Amino acid sequence: MIDDTSRHLFGEDHAIFRAQVRSFLDREAVPHHDRWEREGMVSRAVWQAAGAQGLLCPTVPEAYGGAGADPLFSVVVVEELARAGTSGLGFWVHSEMAVPYLVNFGTEAQKHRWLPGVVSGDTIAAVAMTEPDSGSDLRGMRTRATRQADGGWLLKGQKVFISNGQMADLVIVAAKTEVEGKDRISLFLLDARSEGFRRGRNLDKLGVHAQDTSELFFDDIRLPPDALLGEAGEGFAYLRRGLVRERMIIAASCIAKAERALALTLDHARQRRIFGRMLLDYQNTRFVLADVARDITVGREFVDGFLARWLAGGLDETNAAIAKLWTTEMVGRVADACLQLFGGWGYMTEYPIARLWAEARVERIAGGTSEVMRDLIGRSL
Ligand SMILES: Cc1cc2nc3c(=O)[nH]c(=O)nc-3n(C[C@H](O)[C@H](O)[C@H](O)COP(=O)(O)OP(=O)(O)OC[C@H]3O[C@@H](n4cnc5c(N)ncnc54)[C@H](O)[C@@H]3O)c2cc1C
């Protein structure tokens, strides 16, 4: 199980925070998670409770209501979400995917307007890049924002697969804009109360059922001039920078998910008796779990090393892609091998290992597919 004392990067403050996060999730999320899975989303109350405990956006500077903590506090939150099996809580999408764009590229006025609410959990954030016809190929997006005479923008288009989409109050939307005669991507802050904003279906997924994943529609939304985030036309560069953080967070989360798979399987293998022997007594079981333990140990050292580089500002896009590719493929392998040791019970969704297997599957798709990671790495060689 995750233990900060053997991890050089993490100090006593992280261990204290980890204990707080763990107890919060065990108390406020685990008992409700089955119901949230049936309902297709979590409650607003748990977001606000998490905000009150400092679980949301821990790195937001104090001037805007945050704790100004180092990003390892964010890592602690995602690892604990994975450990608890509370995949429905889209906290990392909010804190690590969406809000950093506002912190890094927002004006003072934009930050003062939005950041206190995202820290408290009163405002839930999402990022909308993907469209029905373009996911990996972001430059192929069709959503367009056209500058108006008053300096504002007219936003038209649609997005799909947007995490937190049903609950979001603030959506960071990527859209094509014309800059000096050329089509370039820009980012916009969309208030979900804007006229012309519509949420489509909460999509029915293979796993992660308690997290809402949605279609979003922008029907000629009039955005004010200050909805533009950063410079017009710089959106693609901002996304590339943001994806480094997103991919390191995914990598850390995948190691914690693999660790949970091992803990669940060990528990089962100690209890299950087959042909008069404990499942764990079979050499096959021990060999499978030995490989799992090897992957987790190697993976944790590897990811912690990259996290240290990231903290020091020296982790580039290629290395973040390597971390995402390796850890997401590893957790897929681990979840599959562990599920096999449960036999038929492993296929029953009432068993956490079945849900973990379905959760692990999306890691090779969302946040950039394995093929896109290989393409990025390959181009750097
Ligand atoms: C549960 C879930 C949550 C998500 N949350 C969000 C979110 O919050 N916000 C958001 O904007 N998006 C989100 N996404 C979208 C996700 O990022 C995309 O699904 C992903 O980037 C792939 O895009 P696509 O689905 O359009 O697949 P496509 O791009 O159509 O890919 C199809 C296939 O082509 C392959 N391919 C693509 N490019 C190459 C290449 N260069 N070489 C070889 N093969 C290639 C892919 O790997 C894949 O196998 C989410 C997706 C899921 C499933």
Automatic annotation (TrEMBL):
Assigned keywords, A-Z: FAD, Flavoprotein, Oxidoreductase
Cofactor names: FAD
Pathway info: Siderophore biosynthesis; mycobactin biosynthesis
Top-rank taxon, per record: Bacteria
Residue ranges constituting the Acyl-CoA dehydrogenase/oxidase N-terminal domain according to the UniProt record: 12-122
Pfam families, A to Z: Acyl-CoA_dh_1 (PF00441), Acyl-CoA_dh_M (PF02770), Acyl-CoA_dh_N (PF02771)
InterPro entries documented for this protein: Acyl-CoA_dehydrogenase (IPR050741), Acyl-CoA_DH_CS (IPR006089), Acyl-CoA_Oxase/DH_mid-dom (IPR006091), Acyl-CoA_Oxase/DH_mid-dom_sf (IPR046373), AcylCo_DH-like_C (IPR036250), AcylCo_DH/oxidase_C (IPR009075), AcylCoA_DH/ox_N (IPR013786), AcylCoA_DH/ox_N_sf (IPR037069)
Span of domain Acyl-CoA oxidase/dehydrogenase middle: 126-220
Residues of the Acyl-CoA dehydrogenase/oxidase C-terminal domain: 233-381
Family: Belongs to the acyl-CoA dehydrogenase family.
Main function: Catalyzes the dehydrogenation at the alpha-beta position of ACP-bound acyl chains. This results in the introduction of a double bond in the lipidic chain, which is further transferred to the epsilon-amino group of lysine residue in the mycobactin core by MbtK.
The protein's name in its UniProt record: Acyl-[acyl-carrier-protein] dehydrogenase MbtN
Organism of this sequence: Ruixingdingia sedimenti
